[in-house]
Amino acid sequence: MDGKLRDRVEVDATADEKQVRETVLASPKVVEHLAGREVAKAVLVPGRLINLVTRKSA
Hints:
By secondary structure, the chain is an alpha+beta fold.
């Protein structure tokens, strides 16, 4: 979201992309920053990070 770290969330290293995405999208800090935006793409680096690419909702 705009190239900035918004939150750190611990997830099991063996979690699949769906589990990681659900956990991240449930984070209060992430929800706050996603207000009025939709996730266009999620880039997952397994065991390291997830990057959410957003766009403004119409």
